[in-house]
From TrEMBL:
Catalytic residue list: C420 (nucleophile)
Domain SAM-dependent MTase RsmB/NOP-type residues, every copy: 156-489
Name of protein: C3H1-type domain-containing protein
Organism expressing this protein natively: Triparma laevis f. longispina
Keywords: Metal-binding, Methyltransferase, RNA-binding, S-adenosyl-L-methionine, Transferase, Zinc, Zinc-finger
């Protein structure tokens, strides 16, 4: 038992150490893996038993979130002043250095994890390492130090981690809604609770213990009480149901590919959205799918392995293929490999600033997939302010590039773009820039039934805000998320748009104002009416023909050719007209 506990502490310490070294390392072109993702991969790689994933997650996120508090407590308790001979053998140093102002630099990651467990986490201490022994020996005084800091107001009362409901997505490739209901009721002993009317109320108050329900807005999503441990569940293990945050399901729904769609996921691993797309393409059980397929790009070799494994686990290998390559190198030319692609999903690397724990507490939990760009600029941007982080700007530049590259695909009809970021730079600003830089795609309304749209009260977003979707913990009980849908502009739409622009330009140039336009059209209408209603006068006779019986212009002659007996010859033709006819006939 102590051995398992120590293994968990060691694994948590490794992940915390990775995250802390990323915090201080210089900017890298490819963002590193975030804490959650590292936990996730350690479970997939068998380093952490699935049943212990929730504990590992709590340890890692707790140590990272409460880093400052833990360091201050250890400092006030004198831990960092201990001489090497006062430390248990093999303990190593507790930090790299302490600055003149008392700032602790390079704190030992295992110390943070163990301190978290003793002071804020389970409050129990198991494990066998020298650091565990050290903290154990000072447990009482450390707890006293924390209590006195709180009493004096220097430390806030401990805020519990946000508890989001457990979301479960149905995989149409492997199961049906009825089977999942039966499984929850018989295997998990949960009772179905009426489908809620409003998502906000239910998701924030949570689903009571012993119950489950279905998402009031999004299809195929079940909601279970927060903390329900499904890591060893048989349907999860068989890939029939998938643990996936509600917000992360918005992208595939915004794309909504039909069963015959030819799809690309540009940034796919670990494949949640790819496989959600695949499931949607197999909603209709009447046939074996409509011939659609998905190519899922992933440039990171480790993540590619995970993607491949999950495609197999979820039964999608016949029509979903993982491609270990950078999408930016994909041939998007007229006759290229991807010329038939109709639907593209783009969920690129982002700041990950939308994690619920971040937006609600402002604390430094790392993102699902990538490091947050700048923990100091959180929250400010939720309301539409700006993040000044250079990393966010770099990410946004790449996001625009991926979108523009995809939009070169010759047969592409729909694009869904998403981020788990709250920053406008990665969301609405990206949409505006893409609309500015190409004229083949327009922004269309994504998931019309989703109630929460883009940032309000930002004048430049007025046109796109009602079209895009945002999700927040506060309103939707999810991580912070953003989704946009682009659709190819049809030829008809292009024509109408051109006309509109022309009209607008003329108006701006003052060529015609509203009243002037009206009078012109009336005039035109009159001219047309005159042409239709007034019968044309009969053609006058051809003089040459009537005189000599033939005409060199034949059918091309603009005068009528009549025989000597025809009534034309009896008409007294006006002299001036005759002169004109003569000239013409001679020509
Ligand atoms: C935010 S994660 C994608 C999460 C995924 N869509 C899901 O729902 O499970 C971004 C992933 O895209 C990969 N990636 C980023 N840019 C890429 C590119 N240009 N080509 C291929 N893969 C890329 C990253 O390595 C990372 O694994």
């Amino acid at each position: 038992m102590a051995d398992t506990a120590q293994k968990l502490i060691t694994l948590a310490s490794q992940i915390v150490s990775n995250c802390l070294s990323q915090d201080t390392s210089s900017e890298t072109k490819t963002p590193k893996m975030g804490a959650r993702n590292q936990v996730y991969y350690s479970a997939l790689n068998g380093e952490c038993p699935k049943s212990l994933v929730p504990m590992l997650t709590a340890m890692v996120s707790g140590a990272l979130k409460s880093k400052k508090t833990l360091i201050k407590c250890a400092h006030d308790d004198g831990l960092f002043s201990l001489k090497p001979e006062e430390l248990p053998t093999g303990c190593g140093s507790l930090c790299e250095s302490i600055t003149a102002s008392g700032q602790v630099v390079g704190v030992n990651a295992e110390l943070l994890v163990v301190l978290y467990e003793v002071l804020l986490g389970s409050r129990r201490i198991r494990g066998t390492s020298p650091i565990v022994k050290l903290v154990k020996s000072r447990k009482a005084s450390l707890q006293k130090t924390l209590a006195s800091r709180r009493k004096s107001g220097t430390e806030k009362q401990h805020v519990d981690r946000i508890k989001m409901p457990r979301f479960v997505r149905l995989n149409h490739i492997k199961t049906t809604s009825n089977e999942v209901h039966a499984h929850f009721e018989s295997s998990l002993n949960l009772k179905f609770m009426e489908k809620p009317e409003s998502s906000t109320a239910t998701l924030l108050s949570g689903v009571p213990k012993g119950k489950y329900t279905v998402d009031p807005l999004l299809p195929d999503i079940f909601i279970l009480p927060s903390g329900t441990n499904l890591h060893t569940d048989s349907l999860v293990n068989s890939g029939a149901i998938v643990l996936q945050d509600r917000s992360s399901c918005l992208t595939a729904l915004a794309l909504n590919p039909p069963s015959n769609a030819i799809c690309v996921d540009t940034c796919a691993s670990p494949g949640n959205k790819t496989l959600h797309m695949a499931s949607l393409m197999r909603r209709d059980k009447s046939g074996k799918g409509g011939g659609g397929r998905i190519t899922a790009f992933e440039r990171d070799p480790t993540r590619l392995g995970t993607l491949q494994r999950r495609i197999g686990e979820q039964g999608a290998e016949t029509f979903v293929k993982a491609r270990g390559a950078d999408f930016m190198h994909a041939d998007v030319s007229e006759n290229g490999e991807f010329k038939d692609v109709t639907h593209v999903l783009i969920d690129p690397s982002c700041s990950g600033s939308g994690l619920a724990a971040d937006s609600a507490t402002g604390s430094a939990l790392t993102s699902e997939y990538d490091q947050p760009s700048d923990s100091s600029s959180k929250l400010a941007v939720v309301g539409g302010g700006a993040s000044d982080s250079q990393k966010v700007k770099n990410l946004a530049r790449v996001q625009v590039e991926i979108l523009l590259h995809a939009m070169k695909l010759p047969n592409l009809q729909v694009v869904a773009y998403s981020t788990c970021s709250v920053y406008r730079e990665e969301n609405e600003d990206v949409v505006l820039e893409v609309l500015q830089k190409q004229n083949k795609f327009r922004c269309a309304r994504a998931i019309p039934t989703w109630p929460h749209r883009g940032l309000e009260n930002v004048p430049e977003f007025a046109k796109i805000s009602p079209l895009v979707c945002r999700a927040t913990y506060e309103k939707d009980g999810t991580n912070g998320f953003f989704v946009a849908r682009f659709e190819r502009i049809s030829e008809d739409e292009k024509g109408a748009e051109k006309k509109k622009k022309k009209k607008k330009k003329r108006k701006e140039e003052g060529v015609e104002d509203e009243s002037c336009t009206a009078s012109v059209s009336v005039k035109k209408a009159r001219v047309t009416t005159t042409k239709v209603k007034v019968a044309l006068p009969p053609k006058p006779p051809c003089v040459t023909f009537s005189k000599r019986g033939n005409c060199k212009f034949g059918k091309r002659c603009r005068f009528s050719h009549e025989t000597q007996n025809s009534p034309h010859h009896k008409i007294n033709v006006d002299k001036s007209l005759m002169e004109e006819m003569d000239i013409l006939n001679e020509f």
